[in-house]
Amino acid sequence: MQHRYFKIYKPYGYLSQFITNERPRKKKKLLGELGDFPEETMAVGRLDQDSEGLLFLTTNGKASAKVTGNKIEKEYYVQLDGQITPTAVETLQTGIEISINGKNYKTQPCKAFILKERPVFPERSKKIRDERHGPTSWISVTLVEGKFRQVKKMTAAVGFPTLRLVRVRIGNEHIDNMNTGEVIELPSFSY
Q: Does the predicted TM-score (pTM) go above 0.85?
C-alpha cells in the first residue's frame, strides 16, 4: 500500500478526528469535511477544537507515532490576555507546574519568546475579544512534548490566559501562508 501524507490548516471549531463516538447534541465539525481523504487517514497528534493551525494527516501509523513522539518540535503562536512580562516568559522556558489528569506535572524546558509584531493569520470564524477589553500580546512557544492542553495551561499558570492558539510548525514543516481549511498533499513528512 502506498501511504499518503497531508498537511492541513485546521480551522477553529473542528475536532482533530474523522469520526466521533459522542451522541450528537449538536453536529460536530470533523476533519473529513475538509477534503476527500483515503479511508485509513488519521490525524497525527491533536489540536483542541478551539485551537487552529498546522496538523498532519496520514495513512502511515508508523510516521504518526514518530511525529507524536517527544523528539519532534511543535511551535505555536499564542495570543495572550495582557502584556506578558519577560519574567513570565522565563518561567515558561524553564518549566512550570501544571495539572494533567488531576496530577501535578512539571513541564520540560521549552523555547519561548515574545513576538515583536502581531502575526498575520486568516480571520477566525469566532471573533476574539477586542482591544477595548485590555491589551493582548503574542508569544512563540516551542515544545517537544504535547500534554493535554499544555500550552494553554502553561500560559494560564504564569497569569496570561490564552485567547488564540495557532500551531505554525511541526519539525521542519511550516504552515507558511496556508488558508484556513487548506489541504496540501506531501510526498512524506519532513521531520
A: yes
